[in-house]
Amino acid sequence: xxxxxxxxxxxxxxxxxxxxxxxxxxxxxxxxxxxxxxxxxxxxxxxxxxxxxxxxxxxxxxxxxxxxxxxxxxxxxxxxxxxxxxxxxxxxxxxxxxxxxxxxxxxxxxxxxxxxxxxxxxxxxxxxxxxxxxxxxxxxxxxxxxxxxxxxxxxxxxxxxxxxxxxxxxxxxxxxxxxxxxxxxxxxxxxxxxxxxxxxxxxxxxxxxxxxxxxxxxxxxxxxxxxxxxxxxxxxxxxxxxxxxxxxxxxxxxxxxxxxxxxxxxxxxxxxxxxxxxxxxxxxxxxxxxxxxxxxx
Length: 297
Fold this sequence. Notes:
Helix content: 40-55%
CATH topology of the largest domain: Rossmann fold
Number of helices: 13
Shape: globular
Number of strands: 9
CATH class of the largest domain: Alpha Beta
Distance between the termini: 51 Å
Strand content: 5-15%
Radius of gyration: 20 Å
Oligomer: single chain
C-alpha cells in the first residue's frame, strides 16, 4: 500500500519505519529536514509538503502535535486535501479534544475520506518496536482499511465504537494516568534525594515494589541520568492535561489529581523547560529544594 505519513518526530519516526519494514511504500513529510532524512534511511521516500506526500496515496497517517497543525496539514497551503484521492483512508493519531476529532471526521467524511480516530500510547521505543496501544474509533470501512497499517505498528488495537471522538476521549482519560504518574515519580525521587537516598536506588526499589509504574520505568532513568533531550517534550502534558481539564470543566466533573499535575508541568514550562523531555519536570523540585537529582548523587 502507498502511504503518506505527515509528522515524523519522536513517535512518527518509529511508526513510519515499521510501515516501511512491513513492505508498504511510505512517503513522508515533516517540517524538520532531519526527520525526513531518517525516513529515507529507513527505506521510505521524502516529500516537500503534505500535498506531495499524498499524491497517489491510498492512506494518510497524521502524527503532528495538535489540532491547529492538523488543520494546516489537511487544508492549509500545500495541504493533503489538494491531492488525496477520494476514498483514501486518514488515520488521525494526533491527541486533541474529542470535539475537534469529531469535527475533522465529519469534514473528511463529507469529502469522501473515511477517518479513523486513532490516538495511541507507548512511547518512542514502543513505536520503533511496533508495540503501541491504539485507542480507535470509526466506521467498519475505516477499520478494515486501517488493518494493514495498524498491524505492524500495534501491540493492541482497542475498538471504541463507530463514532469519531471516542478514541480521543479514551486518550484524554489515559493521559491523566500518564501525566499524574510521572508527576508523582518526579516528586518521590526528588524527595528521596533530599532525604539522602541515592536516586538510582529509589528508582530500583520503587519499580520492583508496589509503587511501580510504566511512566516511572520509562522516564525515570532519564530523570536520574539527567538526559533531558526531548524524546517526548514536556509540552505534551501541558497540552494533554489541559484538554482533560477543559473537558472536566464543561462536564462539571472534578479532576484534582490532574489539576495538580498540570500545575507542575506549567511550573516546569515557566522555568523554561517546555521544549525539554518530560523528565525535566523533576527540575521544578530541584529548584524548590535547591538540589540536583542524579544517579549516585
